Amino acid sequence: MATQPEVGVSDFVLLDNLTTDTFIENLHLRFQNNKIYTYIGEVLVSVNPYKNLDIYSMQHMAQYRGREMFEVTPHVYAVADACQRVLRQQGKDTCVLISGESGSGKTEASKFIMKYIAANTTQVHRDYIDRVKNVLIQSNSILETFGNAKTNRNGNSSRFGKYMDIHFDYKGDPVGGHISNYLLEKSRVVSLQPGERNFHAFYQLLSTNNATTKKFGLASSAVYKILGSERATAQDSKLFSVTNSAFDALSFLQSVVEDIWSIVAGVILLGELTFTETPDGQLSIGGPLTQCTNALGVSEQALRSSMAGRVLSAGGDLIFETNSFEQFCINYCNEKLQQLFIELVLKQEQEEYAREGIQWTPIKYFNNRVICELVDAPHQGLIAIMDEACLNPTKISDTQLLEAMDRRLNGHKHYTSRQLAPTDKKLKHGVDFRITHYAGENKDSLWQDLKRLLHSSDNRSLADMWPEGGTNIQKTSKRPPSAATLFRNSMAALVTGLQSKEPFYVRCVKPNPHQAPNTWDEQLVRHQVAYLGLVENVRVRRAGFASRQRYDRFLKRYKMLSQYTWPNFRGSNDKDAVMVLLRDLHVSDVQFGHTKLFIRSAKTLHGLEAARAELIPSIVILLQKLWRGTLARMRYKKMKAAVTIYNAWKRYRVRRYIAELQAELQRNRGVIRQWPPAPRRLPAPLLQAAYRRWRAYLTLKPIPRAQWPQLKMKICAASALRARRTHWGQDRQWIGDYLADSSYNSKAAAYQSQLASLQKSQQVGRALFSCRVHKFNRYNKLAERCLLITESAIFKLDANTFKPLKKPTAITEVGAIRIMSSDVQLVVISIPSAKNDLVVGLVAPNSNQTGGTADLVGELLGVLVNRFNMLTGQELSVEVESGATTRCILGGKTRALQLPAAPPSPAAAAAAPFTHAHNVITYHPASARA
Ligand SMILES: Nc1ncnc2c1ncn2[C@@H]1O[C@H](COP(=O)(O)OP(=O)(O)OP(=O)(O)O)[C@@H](O)[C@H]1O
């Protein structure tokens, strides 16, 4: 019982107990499942579905590009691709042999191949290749118009053999081609079987009233003998346009196209001529003779004489049934191709096995050489006998020819006739003979005088078709070679040509004679399977090997299946690697040739393919991973190199800049007067700050470190005063917290304990400055107080208890400080938010250096300016009044604050440091100089 075959490698090879029955049963099963293609070995079998199952799309074709035949579902595209690949990769000429009965799908298969080749081109020289592709495809339309006809077996049957050569450039792109025709069925022109049509060209021309029909007096509505019982249809009219556009696409000159249609018209008109013999033995021609000679471009006289000549020298009666000679030739052609197929397949296999040192027992198969020789053997073959008969100067009849054949071929296994087999009632006595499958008779020749007639035509194209017509008149008496001989010769040339090429095969099978879809005629299929030798082919393949592959290619394809070969084999050669690989996979049905591995069963190949397909995704991911990693590493290295270069450059620029600075320092004895422009991105402010620190360090170095904070205050005061006051205590040591100094404050201990508790309760930070003051308030009252400035606030303290009076004022709230340019100890601390300035006269300690009192204004100023800047980041405004009057705000009102015209006596100043009259406050300072 046959099992349903799977699509893939050599389907039928998988079957056990293969017989013709199981084979056909499987073929049928596939046909029912709309699977029209299958492989036997590398031979593609196509069963004509008579319905559109094939998807002609770029996407569909793309699936076959560069893939092995067994990788994808069977299709003509796979054959085309394999064929083109061998050509591209191995530089070998290839051919595809398409064979099968009439209507089995040969032409369609060849069109698929051409479409595939046309689509599978590279992008270079696009225009030129597009033109070649166009010519390839469009040439079919013309060939079909003039060479195809509707027969009872096929609505669009090719009535000629076709051999198409396509030439490829080194890249595998089609660059040209040549089409040879074999044996056009000429007898169809004058003789039609019931239900059949003549060549499409006649119907196409007569489907419309066009320039040609008008020119030669033809009418689409008229009836012509050549058309038989059929008439032109709307489809013919459509195809007429297609043919003309194909002429156009193939760059036929307009004059040539006109010539061609004139010839077609001429043939139609020839069919309308009537011939009678006049009593004086002359030929009388009736019918549209003038239109006919016009269309053929010959003179009436020439036509008349060549027609008459033919009758006179024909030399034989019409002994033959029409349309059978061509069939005989077609059958002969098929036999020849079948022989080639068998020989090539077996020869190749056997040669390969011998070359590779593989054990091989030759398989028995039916060799149809005997049939071919029956037809074409010199002297003894049918063609030779027919030629001999035709050469006979006396008239020779069917019976005589048959007798000659019977005599010469008696005893041949594949030849028979009624005379030789009297019991075979299917054969007519004295008429029929049979060659195994097919029988045929032979007579065809075109006489030299007719060739001369056509060669003399005004129609250039017609004249060019018959160059032999121009040869010496002396040769005209010589009989031309018979059609059979011509055909035999061209077959021999074809076979020689094909033998030099790497062959691919497509075998077309016709499922029924009615051109109907879904219909299976068992007998018809059986007949084809038998004569195409399909079952034998399977047997040969079964006895042989399902696949053979070069070791390097096999390894490349399957190396990932074993840890010993993936990613690389450590041994020395590919054969060892394949052996290790297969041992690891426990595959044993193989033989190892010298350069190739032979795999016996397709099942093994399936298994390898399946295992490979399973692994591929992870390998793809691995490769992607590695590649991405490589890319990232490459990118990283580049980035790192760029950063290194950039850093080196940056360092170099900095070094160069610093060298410039050093030069500047040397020039100016350690001072940079003019900063040279810094390179971009160099933090010049930082450098400048470093420079300043360094300069400051040099300046400060001679001064004891303990004095540095004091120095900082002095610098603050100096920069705030900007030389607006001469004496500000700069020459003496600043104490800061004077109240803590017992020489200044007899209650220093009480102050300190009070300060400690204040620091604890209010977290005001260190005491930076403190002293006694005379304070003048908004009620024009004078009070003795102590002033304390901590890190964050300004306190007014009770002069005896040192307790804070009111809330302290935050340093950040100070708006400005006003002082006089003379050396008085008057200080106005402006506090805008309180609307009351702090107006105080500082009570300076005795100065050790001068013996007078020290100046506290500068010190207070230094502390406040410095702290204000540290807390707010801004400069505190310092106003220095150069005259004798300044101002202050008390109780929200601005009041004048002045110094007395004459210096007060120290006693008076001590008694009332501030007085007021008429809203003017006068400060009577004791002179202070430090
Ligand atoms: N693959 C296919 N899919 C669908 N229909 C097909 C296919 N192949 C052939 N046919 C049908 O069968 C018809 C006959 O096919 P085609 O003309 O190719 O046969 P052929 O073998 O070239 O015949 P002949 O020898 O008479 O020229 C086509 O016109 C088409 O209708």
Automatic annotation (TrEMBL):
Species annotation: Helicoverpa armigera
Gene3D superfamilies tied to this protein: 1.20.5.190, 1.20.58.530, 6.20.240.20, Kinesin motor domain (3.40.850.10)
Residue stretches making up the Myosin motor domain: 7-613
Every TH1 domain range: 722-925
Pfam families in UniProt: Myosin_head, Myosin_TH1
Keyword NAD appears in the UniProt entry: no
Gene Ontology MF term list: actin filament binding; ATP binding; microfilament motor activity; phosphatidylinositol-4,5-bisphosphate binding
Key words of the record: Actin-binding, ATP-binding, Lipid-binding, Motor protein, Myosin, Nucleotide-binding
Location relative to the cell: Cell membrane
Binding residues for ATP: G100, E101, S102, G103, S104, G105, K106, T107
Protein name: Myosin motor domain-containing protein
Entry-linked InterPro entries: IQ_motif_EF-hand-BS, Kinesin_motor_dom_sf, Myosin_head_motor_dom-like, Myosin_TH1, P-loop_NTPase
PANTHER family in alphabetical order: MYOSIN, UNCONVENTIONAL MYOSIN ID
Top-level division of the source organism's lineage: Eukaryota
Lineage summary: Eukaryota, Metazoa, Ecdysozoa, Arthropoda, Hexapoda
Family classification: Belongs to the TRAFAC class myosin-kinesin ATPase superfamily. Myosin family.
Residue segments, region Actin-binding: 491-513
